[in-house]
Amino acid sequence: MATKKPWGGRFAQTTDPTAERFSASIHFDRALARHDLRASRAHARMLAAQRLISESDCDAILGGLDALEAEIEAGTFAWDPALEDIHMHIETRLRERIGEPAARLHTGRSRNDLVATDLALYLRETAAALELGLLELRGTLAARAREHIDTVLPGYTHLQRAQPVRLAHHWLAYVEMLGRDGERFAGVRQRVRFSPLGSGALAGTTLPLDREATAHELGFEGPTRNSLDTVAARDAALEFLSAGAIAMVHLSRLAEELVMWSSAEFGFVELSDAYSTGSSLMPQKKNPDIPELVRGKAGRAVGNLVSLLVAVKGLPLTYNRDLQEDKEPVFDTAATLRDSLEVMAGAISTLQVQIDGMRAAAEDPMLLATDLAEALVREGVPFRDAHEVVGRVVGHCVEKDVSLTSLSRGDLVAFHPSFTAGAAELLDLERALEQRSLTGGTARANVLEALDRADAELAARVEAIAAEVAGAKEPR
Ligand code: ARG
Q1: pTM surpassing 0.85?
Q2: Which CATH number fits domain 17-104: 1.10.275.10, 3.40.1390.10, 3.30.70.20, 2.40.50.100?
């Protein structure tokens, strides 16, 4: 339905109905309602302090905004596609509610600096929430890791069994990865530490706004430094999408391992019934749908990053309507990552580990072939030669179909005189783990130390984020 254009003083005709529907963003940008109201309160108070509006108009505006917020929370707010976006909704409904004072709220302000402000507030809040979600999953992984300090499985390269590792060491790898993801989201919060409000449509305003005041009220460090950059830039949103895509890719790798490990071929874990589903046809099936969906949804997060990168790439300064395309990818990545973190934490915390299956796979003596070469290195043999010798030993075992550990000292000496004992004596799974005691290694003491460090770091990060977020909260 084409209606008279809001703010349409210069137009003779109404908007084409399809064009109206095509350009409306209210069905998604209503997610910014709280942020828009908050920015408007700060703006109104500043206008009053600057004597650009009267105290009584300011009071009327603040009262009206509170009432609109209550309507939105109660679900009684009237959303209307003809009112394009969240900014137009708030302004229009405020006018209906309080009359003339509402017409003064947009003084010195544009939707361009307003939407940039809303988005900065949203990114700051959402990045912190995702950091906490990442910490939650890291905590779950660290707790499960501590239970499995003595559970051993093969570590893989090229999906070929490579060397034995502790399951705790394996899961701590994800604790590290997800920690860097958290740092990336903290970086996003750093990037949005300045307030866009007061940049106007692009070039500021002739009116004496106090940008410092609104910046501080909104929990920013200060105002942004260039009005053109402020309304044109979307790199913080891109960084958010990038951090989200990388985090989803990490979750996808963890999910892929759960899918593989829960197969009969691996037999390393069993997912809880709460995180798997049956087959509509095959009664025996227990499918790892939840990790599969996390793996699948990583694609959306990657796509969201790519779509905004492409939307922004050709744009001249400053604001262009293309920039409205920033929101759906951002909201979608936020929701996808939030839910994926939650279901992965659930799946990991309820996972049953098949300790015997893992150990049986890790006990393949071939996984210790490197250690046999390193035994020769200890006797002074150059590593490259030792590698060659043990390669021939392995070839012999494969050809004769015998176990590496069945070779006596005599058998080994036939390959190189420096072998000091039989393979069974030189090779031992526990020793193989314990000898890997360099920083970052899989020896028990190292892994315990890493677990302690992770626990301390996780607790400290949760506290730090809580303190940072409290500083940015709206004073009530
Ligand atoms: N809905 C718009 C967006 O999200 C708000 C800014 C519109 N500005 C304008 N000049 N049309 O980008």
Answers
A1: yes
A2: 1.10.275.10
Token digits for 26? 């209210």
Q: What is the pLDDT of residues 208-267, one digit of tens each?
A: 999 999 999 999 999 999 999 999 999 999 999 999 999 999 999 999 999 999 999 999
pLDDT in tens, 142-182: 999 999 999 999 999 999 999 999 999 999 999 999 999 99
CATH class, range 364-434: mainly alpha
Residue 222 three-state SS: strand
Q: How much distance in Å is there from the Cα of 36 to the middle of ligand 1? A: 13
**How far away, in angstroms, is 51 Cα from ligand 1 center?**
28
Percent of residues, the chain, with pLDDT higher than 90: 93
Q: Which atom of ligand 1 is nearest to 319's Cα?
A: 10
C-alpha to C-alpha distances, 270 to 166, 252, 286, 351, nearest whole angstrom: 18, 18, 9, 6
First to last CA, the chain: 40
- Please identify every residue annotated as catalytic: 158, 279
User: Which of 117, 321, 323, 328 for a ligand 1 pocket mutation test, highest count of atoms within 8 Å of Cβ?
Assistant: 321
Q: Report the C-alpha gap between 254 and 266 in whole angstroms.
A: 15
Distances (CA, A) of 223 to 40, 230, 390: 16, 10, 66
